[in-house]
Design brief:
Blueprint (H helix, E strand, L loop, with lengths): L14 H28 L3 H47 L1 H14 L4 H25 L9 H25 L5 H24 L3 H25 L5
């Protein structure tokens, strides 16, 4: 009887890029749609709406990139400092670090004898990598990459922001608000479902959560536009 390969598919590996991509696209749709709605309820000028939308896209993409770069750079600095400190400890207190690593494995369920042997073998192969992974929680897959995170956030924000701008430009003057509102909600719901599916989470709660807050944000922005109604 032929043996079947047992393959497991886990979603935890998607969390890094997924967070930046979904957050960026969601912010791009929501913030730009809110801006477009605010302007559209105050004026019927397509040119004013376009200027506001494009300005929001550029400013938002740069802001997302800068914020993500600074945030992830701070994380990278902490990781580098911890690795440098661990490297110094390994150089000056090798035996103590070996016992510390074995103690970690004991806490995870191994016997003391097996934990000591595992620690010894991993230390012989790559002591710093073993301590980075099992003591500090730093792996090659999870290590901070500021430039990559910044580019992903800016790109996903820009893609999301284009949608309400295009919807507004292609819509007749009288139904710009309704078109942008409906289009943006559909896209937000899709992003919520996409993020949930990629992360292995239930679709409905994630979709409803994103859609609800999208409705609130765009309604408030449209209300402000109506409150300060002007003709341009």
């Amino acid at each position: 009887m032929a043996r079947r390969l047992h393959r497991e598919h886990h979603h935890i590996g998607n969390t890094g890029w997924l967070r930046a991509a979904v957050l960026g696209a969601n912010d791009g749709v929501l913030s730009t749609a809110s801006l477009v709605l605010g302007v559209a309820t105050a004026t019927h000028s397509h040119s004013s709406i376009l200027i506001a939308g494009v300005s929001g896209l550029v400013a938002g993409a740069l802001s997302m990139a800068a914020g993500e770069y600074v945030s992830v750079s701070s994380q990278a600095d902490v990781e580098k400092a911890d690795l440098a400190a661990e490297k110094r400890e390994l150089a000056s207190h090798k035996d103590i670090e070996l016992k510390e690593l074995a103690g970690i494995y004991v806490q995870r369920g191994l016997t003391r004898e097996l934990a000591a042997e595992v620690a010894r073998q991993l230390t012989a192969k790559d002591a710093l990598a073993a301590h980075a992974r099992d003591e500090l929680g730093i792996t090659e897959e999870s290590i901070a990459r500021p430039l990559q995170a910044a580019m992903a956030s800016a790109a996903s924000f820009s893609i999301g922001a284009v949608i309400p701008i295009v919807a507004a430009m292609l819509s007749p003057t009288g139904i710009v608000v309704a078109t942008v509102y409906i289009t943006s909600l559909i896209v937000l719901a899709g992003l919520g479902a996409l993020g949930a599916r990629a992360g292995g989470a239930p679709l409905l709660p994630a979709t409803l959560r994103v859609t609800f807050w999208g409705i609130v944000a765009m309604a408030v922005s449209a209300g402000i536009g109506m409150l300060f109604h002007v003709q341009v």
